[in-house]
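quick one before i forget lol
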Amino acid sequence: MTTVALHLMPAEFEEHFLRHRSTNIHELSRSPVRVLVTSAMWIESGHWLPYAFLYTVFHASAERWLGTVRWLGVCAAAHVLASLISEAMLLAAIRKGMAPAAAVDTLDIGVSYALAGVIAVLGYRVAVPWRYVYVLVVLVVFALPLAAGPSFTDVGHFVAALIGLACYPLVRGRGKAWNPKETLAAPRG
């Protein structure tokens, strides 16, 4: 629904509207709780189809496995902490002269930090030794942009993945881990 709302807005109003809901340094200093909540409800590009696919694959799996409250806990932790850490790093870069002062108003909205955290926490759903491969792939996927000239968003995604991995206490006792080898060996009917 938020994507539909964005598409109905005049283009000149859309950026102002999103910037007011952004977790940028300026908005975080004015109303941190409001922007941490509202920034997670919008997709900057307005392209919802990739997110629908990713939500189906990762978020739905995580919510089914963890339950709604624990899943939301992972989402909130990844979104809030990654937003705060990445913006703190940007502020430090501005103060050191490594980023322009105008970066305090950088547009930073979206659901991707929560998604990165959920993708990472799902590593605990996979049985060992497959878990190590899954977690390695997740970390590489989120680390590659850092090697290519990091932005605060790239840092935020990597931090969100680490936060997802740190959510291990939320996953203990959530049932048997999925073993791909058992799935492949299951009789087909």
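fyi Residues 68-95 form the longest helix (28 residues).
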